[in-house]
């Protein structure tokens, strides 16, 4: 009876061990330096179109383990510059995270507020 009690005490540990180890994956060294990765992300974002979208998503997805912050920054910057937004919007569905969504929302709200102010000025004239 006593041995069953000890075995049962360790059962949750044995059950949770694979779950805990599955949360972390080992990745190798980064394939590029950060400046090279930043330029690569800029190039990929600028050259995205419907013909190469799936390949671009696959390429970027493969780099996100090392360069998530760089990708987010470049995606937000490209959106601010209004560079091919119609193509960028299609990349956001599979690749963007909450940080990008919040930044884009802020950009859109600021643009809407600026348009409202311009409309008010025009109507006063």
Summarize the structure in words.
The protein is mainly α and 125 residues long. It has one domain (32-124). Helices cover 80% and strands 0% of the residues. It is built from five helices and no strands. The chain has helices spanning 2-22, 34-46, 53-80, 85-95, 98-124. Helix 2 crosses helix 3 (53-80). The longest helix has 28 residues, at 53-80. It is globular. It starts with a helix and ends with a helix.
Which descriptors apply to this entry?
125 residues, mainly alpha, 80% helix, globular
Overall 3D shape: globular
Label the structural class. mainly alpha
End-to-end separation: 91 Å
Average pLDDT level: 84
Secondary-structure element string:
HHHHH
Oligomer: single chain
Radius of gyration based on Cα positions = 23 Å
The total of beta strands comes to 0
Residue share in helix: over 70%
- Strand coverage percent: under 5%
Instruction: State the major sheet.
Output: none
Q: What's the tally of helices?
A: 5
Low-confidence stretches: none
Number of domains: 1
